[in-house]
Amino acid sequence: MREVIVAGVGITRFGKFLERNLKSLSEEAVSAALTDAGAQPHQVDQVFFGNAAAGLVTGQEMIRAEAALRNTGLDGKPMFNIENACASSSSAFHLAWLTIASGQAETALVIGCERLSHEDKRVSFEVFARAVDLEEPLPEGYQAGSGSLFMDLYAAKARKWMEATGGTREDFARVVVKSRRAAHLNPIAQFRNETTVEEVLASRMISDPLTLFMCSSIGDGAAAVLLCSDEFARKLEVKPVRVRASAIVTARTSGEREPVAVIASRKAYEIAGLGPQDLDVVELHDASAPAELIHYENIGLCEAGGAIGLLRSGATDIGGRVPVNPSGGLLSRGHPIGATGAAQIVELTQQLRGQCGPRQREGARVALAENNGGQLAGDSAVACVTILSV
Q1: Which stretches are annotated as coiled coil (predicted)?
Q2: Is 86 noted as a catalytic residue in this protein?
């Protein structure tokens, strides 16, 4: 397997943009990534396009990449449409990485793009309701009522986690305060106003114990990543960010079961020859505030039951030992689902290059991204973990 390099990254602002479409968002991200790498469209060998919801939101099916990218100069290139719930563009990244590592291409462009905004909010919420096995009974402890299936699912997990660990609503609020503080420093983030624990707790209840600020929002945006071989990177004269590992796991539905995030992170650590103690900065899937705390344990940042202490210590805040979601994460940077995985890679690449200004983790050399998607058998349906280094 050959070494694979992140040569260029690009990202749009995240937010609600009813006036924009997949073409507009994709074109901006692609142009930014190619410019960042000093590359031209004709130098791209293959294209991997991550999108989860266009079929439900806009009606565009089957040729999403071909339609969205027709004006980018990439027409005529091999294009692959990747749909894998919220892990669509991290799955696209994984396939692009494999393509270059195996010697099948010198370059591959990964795009994650989503427009979830719709004049009828019911259309947007319906997207998430389809990311489950529709024939599977809902898990024990689930209580409907918020209008958002996934926030009700996260609320059930949060209640279970609180009972097991002694965690509180205030701990979830602290995650949001940390997230908003980071997003305030990120010019592309959807929610940039800082907040307080009291304001988070006072925001509208969505699904007990989750208040509005504890839930990721509907949003639009795109991110792009140009991958290439080490030899091609030398031609571009870029500062190399190396892909040390990429691992994807889907949920087991029988037999011995561990959370997919645990298994995917373990595999990634094995591939990279690294461990959680080596990480300098992390982007993980905080679709709700408690999810961040749960994933601290899943990816090995702390022992089981240690997430509350880790959060309260400040170690995962900007300026801490291992900042988590310095972009603002899904809670504050935003969560246009098909773009989220690629957006994590953009942030971590910029962190490893030292380009993140006041939210920079000084001396960052190793970074990890963890991205989930869907719900199956009481767990995320899929988890993708990527490790990068300089």
Answers
A1: none
A2: yes
